[in-house]
Amino acid sequence: MTATLTEYTGVIPEKRQITNKPRFSDKVFRFIVTSGGFTSLIILGLIALFLLLRGLPVIKDMGFGFITGFEWNPGDPENGVPVKFGIGAMLIGTIVVAVIGLIMALPIAVGTALFLTYYAPEGVKKPLTIAVDLMAAIPSVIYGLWGFFVLMSHAVYWEKLIHKYLGFIPFFKMQAPVYERSPFIAGIVVGIMIIPIITAISREVFSQVPLDRIQAAYALGATKWTMIRSVVLPFGSSGVAGGAMLGLGRAMGETIAIYLVLNIYFSPNFQVLFSAGGNVASLIVSKFGEAGEYELRGLMAAGLILFIVTLIVNFLSNAIVKRTSRTGK
Amino acid sequence: MATLDYSSVKPQKPWRLDSKQLALNSGIFIIAILLTPVLLNITALNGKLGGAFIFIVLATAGNILLSVIRQGVKTISTSIAASLIYVATGLVLLPLASVLITVIMRGKDAIRFNTLTQDMRFSQPDAAFTEGGALHAILGTVEIVLIASIICVPLGILTALYLTEIKGRFENLVRFLVQAMSGVPSIVAGLFIYSVLIVTLGAKYSAFAGALALSILMLPTVARTSEEVLKLIPNDLREAGVALGATQWRTVAMVVVPAAKSGILTAVILGVARVAGETAPLLLTILGNTSTHLNPFDGPVAALPLYTFSLMKTGLEVAVNRAWGGALILLTLVLILFITARLLSGKKR
What we know:
The complex is a heterodimer of chains A (329) and B (349). By secondary structure, chain A is mostly helical. Chain A has helices at residues 24-37, 39-62, 65-68, 88-119, 122-137, 140-166, 183-206, 211-219, 224-253, 256-261, 280-288, 293-327; strands spanning 72-73, 84-85. In chain A, helix 4 (88-119) packs across helix 7 (183-206) and helix 11 (280-288) packs antiparallel against helix 12 (293-327). The model of chain A has no long low-confidence stretch (mean pLDDT 88). Chain B contains 13 helices and no strands. Chain B has helices at residues 19-42, 47-71, 76-107, 135-166, 171-181, 186-200, 207-232, 235-243, 248-259, 261-276, 280-285, 304-314, 317-348. At the A-B interface, helix 1, helix 2, helix 4, helix 5 and helix 6 of A face helix 3, helix 4, helix 5, helix 6 and helix 7 of B.
């Protein structure tokens, strides 16, 4: 018994067109996502544009002296005091503090990263990683508070020791015995704040070292340290350099902690133990409250310079880190 | 032929210290602890940190000496390096512990019940702790952070989707810009919003302005973390969605994003934790206030970091203690966010 096939009499649909054109909904989706993806470009562009527009008159009036000048004076037209805005001292101060911070942070951060990758027992690794991440999460106002009330008294004591025994080095000379609120102390605070970034990046790079090279070193009779020296450090050095630059960028843009700890003073000071220094970001905070319209424009120009400097440092460091992770060399 | 009885073979670990060596090691530590106070009295060093310094030097020297005796002079660089690496790790933990302990010890006196229920409208900064509180600052921070999240989270997720789903021509450029944006100093973000909103458009200081400044700082964190999470979603899921006839939009909205839900939530929380403690941009955009002010578009608002900052700047002893209280509340908030993010991301793997 077989079922007879009845002839199909309905409408046979036409063959569907095969196409790789996106549907309308996908076009909308891609448009929205793409335009969302360009937010960062738009914001960065707008920041540069607005700070430039606002700050341009001051940069024009001051010329190159805006960067090289050491005086910040809103002027007094009645008494014939000229307006003078120059952030030279603050730029020098920014670099001094950031470099001190980096010198403090780099060995400690690299040591911690080595500990986390090669020395720490399994049970210690995770809590320690969390602790380092936590350090990055603590707000900078708390670091400033701690730096002023807790660290300062200890640091002044170290400064006196350094001055006593290393005072012959020009950097450690003192024009007057005032040790509080010095670039040295601000540098320590900033150093503590950038340790987590450098540690995280160094750890990432160290964990990418090929296992066969490590094992080859051990097979040739290397101890743990000789292995690290001959395999891990050469492999990771440029990544660590990138991390250090990223930390430097952070240190240059740090505001509140430095404003609370450092004695802001408009004169270039290379005596790191002496209580005078500055930083472009803290200049903006300290002058913002009482600034008139023209001075505000000056602050915007200072912000623009800071923005450009940190952007360049950041670009360079990202390029370095990226090169390491791509080529693995 | 006799077979080897492998059950009797034990793995050898010649590097493991036996009980005698362990006793010697801990002996070194005990001697270092005992000698510390003695040396502290003799030398010019003093205080807790001086003691810690002497102890670290003594213990390190002892350990190096011990390993030289055991393994010979050739390994001296190895043992010195190991000691230095341990010391570096200790130097990381020291400030962290110090910050946490100080904030808790100094802040706890300033925390009373009324700290959470009153604002500073009727109280001077140096009034007794039983009077006034940080309610206005807590509400302000919550309000600002909420608005910032509403602005920033969609943009951050869209950026991450562009990097992982569309992978357009500008993928590398966008990734580069997001990374560059994460380095924008917080004060510059504040200055930018100030110059646009308050100077150019003539708006007032407000919670909204503060939220805009914070969302600039928050965007890179949200975008980068979400990107990492979306990268972890297996491609099979996307292919399965498309194979079932879904458009890309349906695949992303119904399959990919739901699969990455908890990861994206982690990204948002990390972003919030990143900006909750920012002071500098708020200083230029919300100005601060002593009374509770809830309208986000009109008038100065208070926030916890700013509350802490301005109280500390008064320099009065009681006000500074109050500032430590504000720091403790802020730290607690950040810690809660941090731990939540940890738990969420830990559960996934």
